[in-house]
């Protein structure tokens, strides 16, 4: 199995290991002191992993390009608290607290752009590693999910006590990070004073079980761009390759439906089930047979920026079929569109459609522009109510 394939599978570690991992008895480990700034991947007001170049080449349907600059806002009115997915390449079952290239890379893709709307807080935590997942796949011992969650909880408590100062906060997570957030919402936020400060929760790339009223505990799914205290959640699959029966994404194991909210639909004041263009930001540095993105430009178009955006190239809508609920993503197949890949016209992961995992690697990238804009609208609504 290739390293690329293992990395793709690794992002699902929190899902595959299941809730049992979070229920393990914590190892006898010293709690992290989150007053120490070295225990944070990103903090406001410093040059760190989130201080990355987000400059983007915009490729129009006619092949013409333009450049979109990016600048974080200096005095953001709200905060973002982010928990990253399974990326650690450390050799143990749980990662150490050293910031490596893997953690830097994921915040570049999933978090830095939110700096246009919020102050960013991203704790390091002793997450379950890619190495632990490989052991599980070979019948070995899982990592300690309780240790990982304990770190996230401790970082959240420190943030509330020493950094928040009554501000609104957006929760952001993906994959294992989203599993941590779901537990955090259940234990530390649901029906507690902190719930009033939640602008929204972006729980991405993870099955969020919601009841018949569309709620996770006391937190409802978002139904409009002006709603606050609500959750945006989805897992993504190509429209041409819906989740197979073996997929662990898009369904829950407790009889509840998995939630799905299309942020692009909220911004357009449409139902999440309506197909809407997604404002995607794709990584321009990883194109080719192992890319987790479409090739959104013609062969003769030179792209030198870190990111590429191709308006109208992909669209999404929430679909419920059988046991599965997911964001169904369609790629513009017009042969006259020079942005469509000449060979497949599709979104690829490791050069092959990974049917069980869908578009997991780019859950966030697919709707990044919509998510950032939605946080902006929710922030305005939050400010008006507080």
Strand order of the largest sheet: 1-5-4-6-7-11
The percent of residues in helical segments reads 25-40%
Q: Work out the number of β strands.
A: 18
The overall pLDDT average reads 88
Q: What's the N-to-C terminus distance? A: 52 Å
Helix/strand class = alpha/beta
Please summarize the sheet with the most strands.
Answer: 6 strands, mixed
Number of domains: 1
**Rg, nearest Å:** 19 Å
Description:
This protein is of the alpha/beta class. The chain has one domain. Helices cover 25% and strands 19% of the residues. It contains nine helices and 18 strands. The protein has helices spanning 3-10, 13-22, 101-110, 130-137, 145-164, 176-189, 263-267, 363-366, 368-385, and strands spanning 40-42, 56-59, 65-68, 78-83, 118-123, 169-174, 198-204, 209-210, 215-216, 219-220, 230-234, 236-238, 257-258, 276-277, 282-283, 307-309, 314-321, 324-331. The strands form five sheets. The chain has a six-stranded mixed sheet, sandwiched between helices. It has a four-stranded mixed sheet with strand order 3-2-16-15, with no helix packed on it. A hairpin with a 2-residue loop joins strand 9 and strand 10. The radius of gyration is 19 Å and the shape is globular. Residues 1-27 and 287-293 have low confidence and may be disordered.
Strand and helix layout:
Blueprint: H1 3-10, H2 13-22, E1 40-42, E2 56-59, E3 65-68, E4 78-83, H3 101-110, E5 118-123, H4 130-137, H5 145-164, E6 169-174, H6 176-189, E7 198-204, E8 209-210, E9 215-216, E10 219-220, E11 230-234, E12 236-238, E13 257-258, H7 263-267, E14 276-277, E15 282-283, E16 307-309, E17 314-321, E18 324-331, H8 363-366, H9 368-385
Parallel strand pairs: 2-16, 4-5, 4-6, 6-7, 7-11, 12-18
Antiparallel strand pairs: 1-5, 2-3, 8-13, 9-10, 14-17, 15-16, 17-18
Helix pairs in contact: 2-5, 5-6
